[in-house]
Amino acid sequence: MITPGDRFKALLNSKGWTAGSLAVKTGVSQDAIYKILRGERVPTMDTIVKLARALDMPLEEIVGIFQVGYTAGRSSALPSNAIPGPPPGAPMVRVPIYGSIKAGGPSILAVQSDDEYLEVYAERLASPDAYYLRVQGDSMLYEGIIDGSLVQVRPTDDEIEDGALMVVIIDNAEGVVKRVKNRNRDTVELHSANPAYPTMVEARSNVRVVGEVVEVYTDKRKSRR
Which residue, 67, 91, 134, 208, is the most exposed by fewest CB within 10 angstroms? Predict the structure, then answer.
């Protein structure tokens, strides 16, 4: 089985880089790079940014090599380790993948993406009604969310968890992923994770919170009905 470390090693070889030369260029220790190559360590987002700059490659390509599943935490940096898998034989469930989330009057209309499902361990779900949403665009790139990433969403009842990564609907448009912060009682800040996208300040009455992002998943495997 090809691991992220194997893919990264192949990339370095194709560009004529060694672990030592990459360490010098990035400031990441050679030991840390060897551990990444051996699959003993998943690089943090800060390290991924350094690798992308050193290799002169788009950030999303480096993210795509390493990121399979991460808990989404409230920090702007990805955690250093992927989610550990349950033991063999643990129950699996099929979770729908939605291509978009829209406001539908008093309810939320979730549009399934071509009857897509993701098979995951049952204990991996944040709640029984959790689902995956396929993200479009690169506004959350520095959260490790690239175009086409799946995010696991734990539905909430229009409640804001201050500082959390959340799916929100603005002015009844399609749902978007932003880091949400309460500015005051009447307004909220919606933060992107890409300097190309400025922070949005919206009236609380214009923002509908669909759910909290609890996991980011970039593996493209899927199952259909």
Answer: 91
